[in-house]
Amino acid sequence: MAPRTRDLTFDTLTVEQDGRVVTVRICAPPYNFMTAQMQKDLDTLTTAVDDDPSVGAVIVTGGVPGRYITHFDIAEIFAASEHNARPLSQKAARNLMRGIDVIEGLPGGERALERSPVSGLLNVTRFNEVVLRIMRSPAIYIAAIGGPCGGGGLEMSACFDVRLAGDDDSVGFILPELLIGLTTTVGGQRLAQLIGPAKALEMMLEGRMYSAHEALHMGLVNRLVPADDLMDEAKVLAARYARRNRETVAAQKRIFNEGLHLSTAESLWIEGASNASAILSGPAPKALRKWLGMQHEHNGDSVFLTDLQPWLRGEAVDLSAGEET
């Protein structure tokens, strides 16, 4: 049986669960730089969440005062460049990463790769898996950003479902990769979807810190909240969203996050199939029956016009019924 998310221990994360909401605090003092160990911990965490039916939402926030995820640890990047000193073309790197992906899935493969000269690329493939898992997860991921959010931390957070930021001068967003001759690692395409390719490129060309208000205006964050209320707001939102059904959440996230990369026809087939599956299985029939009963009570008018609040709170029907808590 897979371990419960709340029972796991990590080097760089702390985890606590309240109802169907898991709160994850990033703890890499003193500066909360993203590291290879943090990526390993996030890999384990996101895998556990997908296998844990008691989790409906995950809040990720900083565990160091005044910090979210500052950016990737530049010292680690430099060490990787020194360790893998030979030049590598983009084509060769792509082929090598595909090979690493295959080897990683073999018994003992990951341990062997970590001791090999290509260990730095293993971190990239692992980070790819983390963000793909987040974008396909049956749980809702919410970033509660209360400090600097840059580089790999911003890229990963761009792949979350909701981003809240504290309305505070300590909160800022930066992508400094082009300033040091690098590109984004996992979040460039997602960022371009959120704020548009032109604005995403401008943000990287500038390389400066963007304020929380600028991030809101660009569409990088969903909303700003008073800094002192950030976690309370995130928990209220997460508790409400955690009442949604995990299977339909995962299906809808795939429609939004992956349908853009398919042909229109293929995307429509997948979307239609997801809807048909939801209608014929899971909690949807029970919800439809409840909706029609309430509609009858209001003389046939739409319940979403006459009595919406129980549905918003997730209390009209328990869509997580049957999922462990």
From TrEMBL:
GO terms for molecular function: catalytic activity. It comes from the Bacteria. It comes from Mycobacterium fragae. Gene3D superfamilies: 2-enoyl-CoA Hydratase, Chain A, domain 1 (3.90.226.10). Keywords: Lipid metabolism. It holds the Pfam family ECH_1. This is Enoyl-CoA hydratase. InterPro entries: ClpP/crotonase-like_dom_sf (IPR029045), Enoyl-CoA_hydra/iso (IPR001753). GO terms for biological process: fatty acid beta-oxidation. The keyword Isomerase does not apply.
